[in-house]
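Reading group handout, session on sequence-to-structure problems. Before we discuss, look at one worked example. The prompt was deliberately terse, the way you'd type it at a terminal:

> structure Major facilitator superfamily domain-containing protein

The input record follows.
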Amino acid sequence: MPFTTMPGWKYAFSLSSESVKAATPPGTVRLIEQAQTTLHHGRYVEKVVRFPVPTSDPADPLNWAPWRKISCLLTVSLYSFACNFSSASLSPALPIWNLWFPENARPFKDLMKFVAVNVLCIGMGNILWVPLANVFGRRPVLILSSMILFLATLLAGFTADFQLVLVCRVFQGLGSSVSETIAPAIVGDMFFIHERAGWMALFTACLASGSVIGGISGGYIAVHLGWFYIFHIGAALTGTAFLCTVFFAPETLFERESPCLPAPRVPRNVRYWTHQHSRRIPARPPCLSLGTLPSMHMTLPSRFLGSMVAAPGPVVDPGRDLFLTWYETSSSEGDLSTVSTPPRLSKQHPPPPPIHDNTNNQATTTNFSLPVGYRPAGAAGGSNGNENRHGILRSSRRMSTITSSHPLPLQLQPPQPPPAELSYLSSLKIGMYRGSFLYQFAKPWMTLRLPTTWIVMLQYGGLVGSVAVISTVGPQILSAPPYQWGANAGLLYIGALTGIVLGCLYSSVLADWRLKRGAKRQDHGFAEPESRIPIMLPSLAIATSGLLVFGFCAEYGALAERKALKDGTAEGMKIHLWVGLEVGYGMITFALTQVPSIWFSYLIDSYAQLASDCFVMTCILRGIIPFAWTFFVDQWIQKDGYLIPFGGFTVIMGVFSLLIVPLIWFGKRMRIATARYVVGNQYQKL
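And the output record:
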């Protein structure tokens, strides 16, 4: 594919605002299409366009029946819940170790390794899992990782050896890794762009609630049933998730022939034809390849080349460029006047009338991707032996490019029949090999050139690190005097659970609504992935403040209650500080539900197949930050108290949160600047 004409950072940030608005980098899709109707007093009704465009293959996840999509979604959600439940349920039970195994007593800093190594392996395991999934498919990797998680949890429930339990926690982390990489990618594979964020919010709510419910129940299980039952119950949960992945999680990794962009309507009298067995039959229109976005280079699959003929009809006005591009071939980085704005869609200017299909004598309105360019005979640039009499460039390559400035009048295709239903037995098949093993291992590290990857890494890692610190320190605070909650220390997670529920509702209601609203407000009906990002601003501000609230309550709680005991007002003060800890924790988890949901949707929308590679880097830092924070936070608190460490975490999280502001203002320019890399690495192999 020709990438030499693609713009870079200098070009992207030199564009005018109107040029940026007219650009269609990867991630910008047409979401709103107006259709003629009189249902609303003669006004045109705005119709949501389904994107990505589904194929006719029944194995395409976009074509699955709703029950299959929902069952697969619930399966990966259950698996993600079980992963975090198994990871977090041990934190409030750590003080129970020395009571159950006095002959193998350990200081608390050693017991903290059960949490730290598990969190680290959850993040680092994706270095292995995601490349394997890109080569062999997501289904076998999901089944294998869930089996490892189940076996490690089962084994840990039958040993009291510290080192062996530590090894089991390592394998628990490795088996849980794909819950935050492959699992969200599966959700993104099954749903269209306008419904993706709502389902992603449900998934992330299950992901986050696993930690909370595990934290609430872990202490009760250890005190009333015993240490081993933490792993027994976890084994039952992870075993159920393993069976569900075997029977209800089909393969969702589906390679589409060419990443297509939505485009304006094809003009009238345009039809597509191809030849098969010496017969001329209607054909699918070719799509505009993402690899050719910034220039006038059109890309066609090989089956169209040399087999398309021009149907009789008027030639479209050559003075009007039909291509939706960033700039024409002849333009340079300094010449920005050639950027064309997509056709205006408004209620005052209705869309063209329906196009009549002569094959069935029915009037139908058909939306297409951009038609292929056409170079008429005698046009500038001349002709060569590779062009036929219609100006179409012949080539034996799988994907070939055609440079032109005039559209080719072709005929419309008839409506495609609905795809066949995928059988249940076919959905259980395991077998895929895409090759390029070493390249798949290198791809995640190359996504560090995308600024969004860094922003997601830091924000998500900071939130998970904050939750890990509180889930470790919080039960200690409530178990010690003057609270002395004992087994009830896990009730601290009630505030976290409340924040997760509120965050899920907030995200599921607003995320997709903002995407559709942004597309409706645009003249051309395009949706930008950045339209969802502003709803995270209040969430990140609340989470940053929550760290400070928790730190103040933890620092001054014990001192204030000792003073209240002398004054006779201890009961009221105790309740107040208890609520402060709960509220601070809930403020953080309120954002923890939204940030991965919206960011995961953004990465999938903007980078398509590269999203899972971005998830790898996100989860690596998501493992490193909690590991580092929980590893030294106990010593830091013993030295300086609670306020200074949590004040430091607040400053760090505040800096991470502010990184969202440049993306709100310049996110589309960044996508324009990085389009060469994004397009070139979708399907390219070394």
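Points for discussion. First: The longest helix spans residues 570-607. Second: DSSP finds 22 helices and twelve strands in the chain.
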